[in-house]
Amino acid sequence: MRRILAVAEYIFKQNFRNKILNVLIIFAILSIGFSLLISELAKEVEIRMTKDFGLFSISIFAFLTLVLSLTIQLFEETELKTISMVIVKPITRAEFIIGKFFGIILTIFMNILFMFIILMVVIKIRGGDPWDLKLFLSVAGTFLSLSILTSVALFLSVITTSIPGCIIFLFFTYILGHLTVHLKNLQYKITNQLVYKIIDILYIMVPNLELFNLKDKIHTNFSLFTFDYILLIISYSIIYILIMLILTVIIFNKKEF
Amino acid sequence: MGKKILISFFIVILFFLINYTNNKATEYLMKNQPKWYFLNFHSYKNINHVLGTAFGLRALTSDFYYISFLQYYGDLRNAKTQYKDLANYFNDATDADPGFEFVYLFGSAILAFNLGRYDEAVKLIEKGLSYNPKMWKLRIYLGAIAYKEKNDKEKYIKFLEDAIKYEDHPAILERLLGNIYEQIKSADEAAKYWVSVYKTTKDKETKLHAYERLMYMIKNKMIKNIDEIIK
Amino acid sequence: MNVIEAKNVTKIYKPLDFWKKEKIVAIRNINLEIKKGEVFGLLGLNGAGKTTLMKIFLGLLKPTSGTVRIFNDTIENRKIRERIGYMSELPYFPKYLKAYEILDYFADLFNIDPKIKKDKINEVLEIVRLSGRQNFKIKAFSKGMQGRLGLAQALLNDPEILFLDEPMSGFDPLGYKETRDIIIELNKKGKTIFFNSHILSEVEKVCDRVGVLHRKEIIDVQPIDQILKKHKNLEDYFINIINDEKVKK
Question: Hey, what CATH topology would domain B42-169 get?
Answer without folding.
Answer: 1.25.40
